[in-house]
Design a protein that fits this description.
Order of helices and strands: EEEHHHEEEHEEHHEEH
Helix content: 25-40%
CATH architecture of the largest domain: Alpha-Beta Complex
Number of helices: 7
Largest sheet: 5 strands, mixed
Shape: elongated
Radius of gyration: 30 Å
Number of strands: 10
Number of domains: 2
CATH topology of the largest domain: Lambda Exonuclease, Chain A
Structural class: alpha+beta
Length: 292
């Protein structure tokens, strides 16, 4: 399928039967990572891009023709290949599903003799720091396209980070099919998406709707309960009632009292607060706010 599409390298455009297809990079930079390169000098970006292009080309020539270049990054890539038992390497593979397109840096099998070999996708990064989240999204979208057209499962995703004499081979998380499709939908609607405040992926939509209804009911009941408790308290105080038996529940009146607490602000001011405090672990939790 990749042979039917034309890649215009100068304009970085994928063209299929005269129609431009949006790229994975374009989709990500207009949805999840809209501000990724904000405030970075254009000259800095250009130099980084030129160096990245050179390294990609050297690695491509090595995989396809066995050619050896001169950059440290190429030889670090060769070490990663050998250390991780990568075989059947394919480089710069263009994929598309008639709607979106992209170029996969590396397709390979991972595993040595006697081991179960895994089909992997890898992306080469030459940035100053490795953005694992970006690579995770990028490769997840490539895997989404690849599996839809070849009916072949991708087992693992990896980032190959090459920066001067430094290098890493890092396994990255695969995003769910639902998350990838949410991005594609956001791109169609020309909207940004933030998965930190997005939708639940593992709970059925019907359950989410029921949960929202339950929480609204709970809030309404709590508001009614508060008003009833205030009315009961007022009457018990006015009539001097100490206890009421309503069958299923009993209500006991408590006299007003005082509470002693530590003035933490004064302790901090006197410089002895830290001496009498301790740190303990608190379990993770969720905060639910019911909208009006």
């Amino acid at each position: 399928m990749e042979n039917k599409i034309i890649f215009d390298e100068q304009n970085h455009e994928y063209i299929l039967d005269g129609k431009k297809l949006p790229s994975v990079t374009q989709i990500l930079e207009q949805t999840v990572f809209a501000d990724k390169y904000y405030n970075i000098d254009e000259e800095v970006l250009k130099k980084a891009a030129d160096k990245g292009t050179l390294i990609h080309k050297e690695i491509e020539d090595y995989i396809k023709h066995g050619a050896l270049g001169f950059t440290d990054e190429l030889y670090n890539f060769i070490s990663i290949k050998e250390d991780n038992k990568l075989s059947d390497l394919k480089s710069e593979v263009i994929v598309h599903n008639n709607e979106i397109a992209g170029t996969i840096d590396i397709i390979a099998k991972k595993g040595g003799k006697g081991q179960q070999k895994k089909k992997i996708l890898a992306d080469i990064k030459t940035t100053s720091k490795l953005d694992k989240d970006y690579v995770s999204w990028q490769l997840s979208m490539y895997a989404y396209i690849f599996e839809s057209i070849y009916n072949e499962e991708i087992d693992e995703l990896y980032a190959i980070w090459l920066k001067d004499e430094k290098s890493k081979f890092v396994k990255v998380e695969r995003k769910s099919k639902r998350e990838v499709e949410d991005i594609l939908e956001a791109f169609k609607n020309r909207s940004k998406i933030n998965f930190n405040t997005s939708t639940l992926q593992t709970i059925p939509k019907e359950t989410q709707i029921d949960f929202c209804a339950y929480m609204k009911q709970i809030k309404a009941i709590e508001e009614k309960t508060t008003k009833i408790k205030e009315a009961i308290l007022k009457e018990m105080e006015e009539r001097g009632i100490s206890k009421i038996d309503l069958g299923d529940i009993t209500i006991t009146y408590k006299e007003p009292t005082t509470k002693t607490s530590v003035d933490s602000a004064k302790l901090k001011k006197d410089g002895i607060y830290d001496k009498y405090t301790k740190t303990s672990n608190v379990k993770s939790s969720i905060l639910i706010k019911v909208k009006e």
